[in-house]
Specification:
elongated; single chain; Arc Repressor Mutant, subunit A; Tetracycline Repressor, domain 2; 234 residues
């Protein structure tokens, strides 16, 4: 089984002033309290007041960092997902030049699968809320990472078009959007399984992408479909 993504504790820079250090420490306590209480009691049963008490901050202070409980979910995940994307981009760049577009997309999302499998309870909650964020203090950070990911997929598509691996007739942004939607759905389906293991999820993702790109690739045949995974068997 792939090693889970390391969740490194925030290190406070000695160059920061006391006020900035205090803010970072409060932010970290709120993140940790939110993670613990959501995991233990569930999203619906946990209150903002409970989180503030666990983090040893006032309720008013908590609202300085998050607008509501949904915002707290993004406060938990935003920094970690940005780190996951950085690591994923490095992994894709390290691939040999002869790897296919599907290879590169699967590698891009490998770290995401590993990250989500490391804390399934929080990941299920986060993936449920990701599609509904429209405002809040954490929305901008979330969308910055999401757009970076989408633009990376588009860049990989353009690279494949330039090499002749896939047709050039369709806009790369449209193909990239389609890939993004397929992967998002695949991840949400996979995480609902009793034991969402990254290797099985990535195998299913590869199968879906191969089927998708059969319509774009010159003279290719669909890959061997293999068994269909369900949330009960994933």
């Amino acid at each position: 089984m792939a090693a889970p993504v390391r969740r490194m504790p925030r290190r406070v820079s000695p160059e920061l002033g006391l006020r900035e250090q205090n803010k970072l420490e409060k932010r970290q306590r709120i993140r940790q309290a939110s993670r613990e209480l959501f995991s233990k009691y569930g999203y619906d049963e946990t209150t903002l007041r409970q989180i503030a008490q666990r983090a040893h901050v006032g309720l008013g202070t908590l609202f300085n960092y998050a607008q509501d409980k949904r915002d707290l979910v993004f406060l938990i995940c935003n920094e970690e997902l940005a780190q996951v994307l950085d690591e994923a981009l490095e992994a894709v760049e390290a691939l040999p030049p002869d790897r296919t577009l599907v290879d590169r997309i699967v590698e891009l999302y490998r770290r995401h699968y590993e990250y989500f499998s490391a804390d399934v309870a929080i990941s299920r909650l986060a993936l449920k809320e990701f599609g509904f964020i429209s405002g809040g203090k954490q929305a901008e950070t979330f969308y910055t990472t999401a757009w970076r990911l989408m633009h990376t997929v588009e860049a990989l598509v353009r690279q494949a078009q330039k090499s002749g691996e896939i047709e050039r007739g369709e806009d790369a942004s449209v193909i990239g959007h389609l890939i993004f939607l397929v992967v998002s759905g695949a991840i949400r389906w996979w995480i609902t399984g009793r034991f969402p293991e990254p290797r099985a999820g990535l195998a299913e993702l590869r199968r879906l992408l191969e089927l998708q790109f059969h319509g774009f690739r010159h003279g290719s045949k669909p890959a061997n479909p293999g068994p269909t995974l369900s949330p009960e068997t994933a």
